[in-house]
Design goal:
- By secondary structure, the chain is an all-alpha fold.
- The chain has 16 helices and no strands.
- The chain is globular, with a radius of gyration of 21 Å.
Length: 406
């Protein structure tokens, strides 16, 4: 009886190891953190550049630098969560986020503006999906897919809620005042939620899976891990370049800005739908087949954008399907470590695995815009991105879990 109880606690499946407030709290904080720290910027950036005279490329570069900082700091955050749980690190990130936005709001020149975003990047690493996924994976395993799905469904509402709210605030306040108000909202929701709802004891890490003969260092050096990192990096670059490039692609083909915006927005709705389908997909496909299939389908939708000029309804359908695949890919990456190497070093391994993919996602919008012109336009760019996705699907075969780690 004692051993059974110990095993339950070790895997995080015991009722006492699951803080009931954690899941709804993380849903609220993911909506708010993503909404304020990520989705408010593209809404405010045109106003920022217009009122300050700062180049749009420079302000966007500051934001992208924040995403790169988030990728790097995320490696350390994963290690901390593995050892101590999410309480301290996510609470600290919740405090840093509003402070960084106040620096951004008060910035007298571009250098301070950039410094504020670099601080915001550290906050992103401590409050976005990665530490939340690590917490839920340890607390909710083996039912973690359900918990992860709920949180990502909530996170998908971030742009729906905060993009319009940011626009409304900007109609009545300056961009600096808008960021100050958003910083207050961020602090009011995330600081108490993380401080109070994540205080439960951190379950003991479960033992290694039978196929793991060494610690996390052995996993990181293994061929499957390296190939999976390459797979997710190529896929992330292609996926985010497609998202940012969809509007200019449709404008280049003669559609209006409103039509292009609707295509992009309905793709976001497809992303939410896709996340509801992942649990069923995971039951019917093994981890390698699931990875290859989803990335290959992403390549197919990107190729469709490259080749189809219309009709508009067909492009909407492709956008929704592409969104469904993106939604599944979010959960695929969230469960990639657990499916192959268990939950023992989830935070550390997911941080290392995700760092190059996050960096690629941050650089993709710039690289895509730079490549479109020499390639001859966005259709050619999308054809190249489809080829990158196909390459990612091929490398996914090399990430097949081994029966015993070599």
């Amino acid at each position: 009886m004692t051993n059974t109880k110990a095993g339950v606690a070790a895997t995080g499946t015991g009722v006492r190891s699951r803080p009931r407030a954690a899941l709804p709290a993380l849903c609220a904080t993911q909506i708010t953190s993503w909404g304020v720290l990520y989705y408010a910027f593209p809404v405010l950036n045109p106003t920022i550049t217009e009122t300050t005279g700062w180049p749009a490329g420079a302000t966007t570069a500051a934001f992208s630098a924040a995403l790169i900082v988030s990728a790097i700091v995320g490696i350390y955050v994963g290690r901390v969560v593995d050892r101590r749980g999410p309480h301290a690190v996510m609470t600290a990130g919740s405090v840093l986020g509003p402070l960084s936005l106040l620096v951004v709001a008060a910035a007298p020149h571009l250098a301070v503006f950039t410094a504020g975003w670099l601080l915001a990047g550290a906050s992103m690493a401590a409050t976005f999906y990665q530490p939340a996924f690590a917490a839920l994976t340890r607390w909710w395993a083996p039912d973690h897919i359900r918990a992860l799905t709920i949180v990502t469904l909530a996170g998908g509402l971030a742009s729906t809620l905060f993009a319009p709210l940011t626009a409304v605030l900007a109609d009545h306040l300056s961009w600096r005042g808008t960021y100050a108000v958003l910083a207050g909202i961020l602090a009011a929701i995330t600081v108490p939620a993380h401080a109070l709802a994540l205080k439960a004891p951190w379950p003991t890490a479960p033992p290694h899976l039978p196929n793991i003969t060494g610690g996390h260092e052995h996993v990181v050096r293994s061929r499957p891990f390296r190939m999976l990192a390459v797979t997710f990096t190529l896929s992330a670059f292609a996926m985010y370049a497609v998202v940012i490039g969809l509007v200019p692609l449709l404008l280049e083909r003669g559609y209006t800005t409103t039509q292009a915006a609707w295509a992009l927005g309905l793709g976001g709705a497809g992303q939410t739908l896709g996340r509801t389908l992942y649990a069923g997909l995971a039951r019917h496909l093994g981890v390698t087949a699931r990875t290859v299939t989803l990335i290959a389908l992403g390549a197919l939708t990107t190729a469709a954008f490259a080749t189809l000029a219309g009709p508009y309804a067909l492009l909407i359908a492709v956008s929704v399907l592409a969104g469904v695949i993106r939604g599944n890919l979010t959960l695929l990456q969230a469960t990639a470590v657990t499916d192959r190497w268990g939950t023992t070093h989830y935070g550390r391994l997911s941080g290392l695995l995700g760092a190059p993919a996050h960096a690629a996602a941050a650089l993709a919008p710039f690289a895509g815009a730079l490549l479109a012109k020499p390639l001859g336009g966005y259709p050619a760019l999308f054809a190249l991105l489809a080829a990158l996705s196909i390459a990612a699907a091929v490398t996914a075969f090399g990430a097949r879990p081994l029966s015993r780690e070599e």
